[in-house]
Amino acid sequence: CESSFQISRHIQDVIYCGSQKVYRSYDKGDTWHKISEDLTRGYKNTGNVPYSSLTTIEESPLKFGIIYTGSDDGMGYLTKDGGNTWTKIIDKPGFWISMVQPSTHKEARVYASMNGYREDHFLPYLMVSEDFGKTWTEFGKDLPNEPINVICEDSQNENLLYVGTDNGLYISFDRGKSFMSSNNQFLPNVAVHDIKIHHRDNELLVGTHGRSIYIANAKMLQNLTQENLQNSL
């Protein structure tokens, strides 16, 4: 079981934290206010974790108050008004929603990754929505059968996606139509649990399970656009 935690991109004193519900602080964590009801399936008696919890909270980098959540029991929610009202956008029993990633380039676009290895499902599960989660399209079918822990959209190149699985880092230059492995070139075969683009230094940050943090200059990857690749031929 893990709790989700997110610092606002828009107001530096605002922090979000999740249990079964979402809590928000306006003063760097000194005081907290509940802004949602239970956004999971609730209490369960099976397995070694008796309660469901929110595993991802992400605020839109384009607009304050647009917040997505995902739970370890397959529930995803969205609020567009800072927590006053919430809408269910994902309902996948038996799956762990590992990441809900709002786009840096289009306000209505959002990505989601799930894994089902707790139910012996090892296929890759990635989805994208262009309408705030009303409809979803699956992609990433050429990825190997490894549980997906995180998906990250590049902040400069909307076609550049990074995916972290239990066995490494994968990169797509065509917004998920195809992926290539960066293992043995960038990092070893290790579980990748978090990926961020540092907005000031434009660096790719990859957090692994037990093998430290890897940092790379993202500029070279960002420049590998279809136009640049065609011009180089």
Overview of this protein structure:
The chain has 233 residues and is mainly beta. Helix content is 4%, strand content 41%. The protein has helices at 219-222, 226-231; strands spanning 5-7, 15-18, 22-25, 33-34, 54-59, 67-71, 75-79, 87-91, 96-102, 110-116, 121-129, 137-139, 148-153, 161-165, 168-172, 180-181, 192-198, 203-208, 213-217. The strands form five sheets. A four-stranded antiparallel beta sheet has the order 1-2-3-4, with no helix packed on it. It has a four-stranded antiparallel beta sheet with strand order 5-6-7-8, with no helix packed on it. Strands 9-10-11-12 form a four-stranded antiparallel beta sheet, with no helix packed on it. A hairpin with a 7-residue loop joins strand 13 (148-153) and strand 14 (161-165). The longest helix has 6 residues, at 226-231. The protein is globular, with a radius of gyration of 17 Å. The mean pLDDT is 91.
